[in-house]
Design brief:
CATH superfamily of the largest domain: SPOUT methyltransferase, trefoil knot domain
Structural class: alpha/beta
Order of helices and strands: EEEHEEEEHEHEEHEHEHEH
Distance between the termini: 32 Å
Number of domains: 2
Helix content: 25-40%
Number of strands: 13
CATH architecture of the largest domain: 3-Layer(aba) Sandwich
Strand content: 15-25%
CATH topology of the largest domain: Alpha/beta knot
CATH class of the largest domain: Alpha Beta
Largest sheet: 7 strands, parallel
């Protein structure tokens, strides 16, 4: 039997164990997913809660709560240079699937994208759809763009991908404190400038390598997140509910 479809709603749509659907959500359920009254689906609030619900015309009746442990125990925060639109959106989708908790766009000297409010709305939809697809309970938070100088003020113990680094990310994993947020910084195509990298390392961040080959930014982001995500799954298997 197929697993029920999933729909993320806003918390204020839920009242008295009933979800009031928006016109857009009704169109999605009835015309895109081809569901009908009486069908069941999973309702998520994007904040860690999930219910099995039954469609009833313009509403969904919540039948029972069910919150599987699909989240990582470790809070992974991806500081991602503003790439070309298609590349940036690809990382948003796949980073969500890999369990990232926050994504912070970074303005760099070699960034090509200047996000508009329209872009941000599109990115939020991508994050939500990827959350539904991967059966996560939390929609990753998308921050406002920061400069490199502001990025390093977030934490003194971040990790930055660099073509000049000699130490592999794999060798950094055992030293990571998985009980605290892990910050990973991925630069633009062409890499960080010398001054940007020097600024980050001077703030206490560690540079890491992903091997002897030069990777595209998308590949570097997904490879880094995969390693840290799987390491967290192995060493901190039980998700912490926030």
């Amino acid at each position: 039997m197929r697993s029920p479809q999933r729909l993320i709603v806003q918390a204020d749509q839920i009242r008295d164990r009933c979800v009031t659907l928006t016109a857009e959500q009704r169109h999605y359920l009835y015309h895109v997913l081809r569901l009908k009254a009486g069908d069941e689906l999973w309702i998520l609030d994007g904040r860690g809660r999930r219910w099995l619900g039954e469609i009833q015309e313009n509403t969904v009746k919540l039948l029972r709560a069910d919150c599987p442990e699909t989240e990582l125990s470790t809070e992974i925060i991806l500081c991602l240079a503003l790439l070309k639109a298609a590349s940036f959106e690809q990382v948003l989708q796949q980073a969500t699937e890999l369990g990232v908790k926050r994504i912070i766009p970074i303005h760099t000297a070699r960034s090509l994208l200047q996000p508009s409010p329209h872009k941000y709305r599109r990115w939020q939809r991508i994050l939500q759809e990827a959350t539904e697809q991967s059966e996560r309970l939390y929609v990753p938070t998308l921050g406002d763009p920061l400069s490199v100088a502001d990025m390093v003020k977030l934490t003194p113990k971040g990790y930055i991908a660099s073509l000049q680094a000699s130490r592999l990310l794999w060798d950094c994993l055992p030293q990571m404190d998985l009980s605290r947020p892990i910050y990973l910084a991925i630069g633009p195509e062409g890499g960080w400038t010398e001054s940007e990298l020097a600024q980050v390392l001077a703030a206490g961040w560690q540079a890491f390598s992903l091997g002897r080959r030069t990777l595209r930014a998308v590949t570097a982001a997904i490879a880094s997140l995969t390693l840290v995500s799987h390491y967290s799954e192995r060493h901190c298997p039980t998700a912490q509910q926030h």
